[in-house]
Amino acid sequence: MATANGRSLRRPPLSSQGNEEMDEPRTLAIDIGGTGIKAALLDDAGSLIGERQRVPTPPKPVAPEDLVRAIDEVAAPLGTFERVSVGFPGYVRDGRVITAPNLGTDALAGFDLQSVLAEHLGKPVRVLNDADVQGFGAIKGQGLEMVLTLGTGAGTALFHDGEIMPHLELAHHPVSGNKTYDQYVGNAARKKKGKKAWNKRVAKVIDILREVVRFDHLYLGGGNAKDITFALPPDVSIVPNTDGLTAGDAKIKVADGEMPGYFARPKGVNNPPVVLVAMEIFGLHEYIKDVTRRLAKLGAFAVAPDYYFRKGDLTKITEMPALFPIVNAKTDAELFADLDATVAWAKSQGGDTNKLGIMGFCRGGRNVWHYSTHNPNLKAGVAFYGSLVDKNDAAPKSSIELAAEVKEPVLGLYGEADTGITPDQVKQMEDALKAAGKTAEFHEYPGAPHGFVADYRPSYRKDAAEDGWKQMTAWFKKYGVLS
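Below the sequence we write its predicted structure tokens.
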């Protein structure tokens, strides 16, 4: 029986949830924070299984036995697992706590959390600093990558070509006067100074870290990263926030195998409406995943299928001339079958396909128009700057030529300064739909180019993007996809 400070600890029985036969090992992932301890089960690919659990962090200073009991409590409803990963908010060496500034260093210093949990749970356990753990989930494994977490305090982690480097407690180093990083950009400073001043401090910290570390990319995580309001430079990005969501990778059965995808849905909501996310030509990258999560925040079970998967991972292709032959070879018949399979998968996962919508960007917007001629169960569609006149051997009819076959109300959102989709083409599409008695609306944004919603590209236009998102939301609500 495991002990902490000489006191015995008996582990309560696990929930029967998830005790069915498993095809792959499950990891119990634990995140110890200053105010709460969170836990979830992950599959072998790191995707979430089921619902995440949370319990309050015990009163400070946190005694070792109280910490272990809280971990028992948060893990109990999750079911069986084969290994354990723990993120701890302090300096950890070989699984042993060295410092715990937000939990109580005097109470926890020297506590071998890794060994105690391994004996207590009867499973292999790895305990690392929480920023180190979050970094493994964020980095791409290319060059010098850094993680800065913004929560109760500030945490940092460094990686070189995917390998973690020795941990440095930069959070305790002075950054401005006598203030440490913890004191300068931690949660207490955010509350005391207000968001505007706190954002200026975060921007200053980013500039300092760039000079000191010379990172290739910096990832911002933690619960307060969502409060960043200033434009981030290209070498800085925010680690996705999935609070209140269940999100992760999907494996969708199609006729010739399994199609990868990404989904996000509101946590604890039964039978959410389903929205298909039709991606651009650049593959299933982080921007599309973020759109999927934003739709889930609106209450949808959003799914983005990687329908170009048969040709490889398009996110790895950076040259446009190499992308066009791949996407232009996709037939509408194969596209429709892939999207139908995505709808069936969402239904099998508890989604309400009686409230089915589709939205997409660029080539994905074109796919919205085309799929709208195929599936009579669609309630509404939204096409962001979807091509209207393009056609080829694989798809011999353009969106305008298919206008009379559209089966559900579709909203078209276009940029007036789009050099590839002209206002005249938009007018032709509008006229063709009207002549066929179809329900459709169009919004054209003055001065907006193609890709005005893509916040990772120079084409991004904040006002048009925000209004377009509002128009999309209202359209889905008007026609019964969202409530």
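The longest strand covers residues 245-254.
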